[in-house]
Design a protein that fits this description.
This protein is mostly beta strands. It has a single domain (30-371), classed as Kelch-type beta propeller (Neuraminidase, 6 Propeller). The chain contains 1 helix and 30 strands. A 4-stranded antiparallel beta sheet has the order 1-30-29-28, with no helix packed on it. A 4-stranded antiparallel beta sheet has the order 2-3-6-7, with no helix packed on it. The chain starts with a helix and ends with a strand.
């Protein structure tokens, strides 16, 4: 073999090695991203339930459904110390799915709204961890199935949108605030668009970003709620209209919006992601998810050094890294594309993932733990 041919082979080999290295670098890496592992089973299979971290480190799992029109009153507790679920002492006063649940500063959990059949409810109740019992409080100003709920800086709760029965014209633009001190609900200014399956994210300055969702049509609009005025004002437009997506606050005060679906629903799952900047009021594109996914938890929980965890709608769990603007895949995976599962950050920084349903209405009782 002559010298020129040897040189050609050498340079081809070098070029191939460089290209292969660049390709490998472009792939999502699970090195240092954390891992997902099975974590036992809930007492009941559930989707559309809520999971709320309590002051003692346990997680309250409440309501949800076994299948369509088969809803739960029951609740259970996950204890990270034992890794097991146990039945809570009491049941909710109402069977509900697609409701809201938030831990109040009092240590009690507000549970409100949700579907109770083909219609929604305006009922609300408080869970007291000291007694493990639920007690009814005053009713909301409107019946709401799958509204958003956001804890405000003063400890009150903004509840916005949702749907009062199974019809597009029943999607709500109205909003209200739960006053924790008086345990009462008060109407505030309405949104500029009716929304369900939207996200609502508390910003660093105490305002709330409401984005996407579905009204009479799929929404690309976004608006800001200001607690000082109790009013919504329109802000920038999403690059992609979406609903059933997730959102999370980044350490620098911007908001990640990721996944969801377009108007085709099951056939329109999205991998795209974008960032809202409160300083400019605009959305800009960021790197896409590795998997298209929808029917996600409303809030992407923050883990590690400000990464946001995305779970549900796929077997894989991903984390968004603000420093690089990329999603990386955790090692390990779920055993199916569980939709409307819950994700709850525990006191030790790990995340409990529980329940959901796959591409059918057969819910699961399985749970997983993500560890950074």
């Amino acid at each position: 073999m002559n010298r020129s041919r040897l040189l050609l082979i050498f340079w081809l080999a070098v070029t191939f090695a460089i290209a292969a290295s660049a390709f490998r670098a472009s792939l999502p890496s699970d090195a240092g991203v954390g891992a997902v592992a099975a974590a036992g089973q809930m007492i009941d299979p559930r989707s559309g339930h809520t999971a709320t971290l309590l002051p003692d480190g346990k997680v309250l799992i409440a309501g949800g459904m076994r299948r369509n029109q088969d809803f739960y009153k029951s609740a259970e507790l996950y204890d990270p110390a034992t890794g097991k679920f146990q039945r809570a002492a009491g049941e909710m006063n109402e069977r509900r799915v697609g409701h809201i649940a938030l831990l109040l500063r009092s240590g009690k959990v507000l549970i409100a709204g949700g579907w109770i059949g083909h219609g929604a409810t305006d009922s609300a109740e408080l869970y007291d961890p000291a007694t493990q019992k639920f007690s009814a409080v005053s009713r909301m100003t409107a019946r709401r199935g799958r509204p958003s709920a956001t804890m405000l800086a003063d400890g009150d709760v903004l509840i916005a949108g949702g749907q009062d029965h199974d019809s597009v014209d029943a999607i709500l633009a109205s909003a209200e605030v739960f006053h924790a001190a008086t345990k009462t609900f008060q109407s505030v200014g309405s949104m500029h668009a009716g929304r369900i399956a939207h996200t609502a994210t508390l910003l660093s300055d105490g305002r709330v970003l409401v984005a996407g969702g579905r009204g009479e049509k799929l929404n690309a609009s976004a608006e800001i709620y200001d607690p000082k005025t109790s009013r919504f004002t329109e802000t920038g437009w999403l690059i992609t209209a979406r609903y059933k997506h997730t959102a999370g606050l980044l350490p620098d005060g911007r908001v990640l919006i990721a996944g969801g679906s377009d108007e085709r629903d099951w056939h329109g799952n999205l991998s795209g992601a974008e960032i809202y900047d409160p300083r400019t009021g605009r959305f800009t594109a960021t790197s896409p998810l590795n998997d298209s996914r929808f029917k996600l938890p409303d809030e992407a929980v923050q883990v590690g050094a400000g990464q946001l965890l995305i779970a549900g709608g796929s077997k894989r769990v991903e984390l968004y890294y603000p420093a690089t603007g990329k999603f990386l895949v955790a090692s390990g995976q779920l055993d199916d594309n569980w939709h409307y599962m819950t994700e709850t950050r525990l006191h030790d920084g790990s995340v409990l993932l529980a329940g959901g349903y796959p591409d059918s209405d057969q819910t699961t009782s399985k749970a997983w733990i993500y560890r950074p």
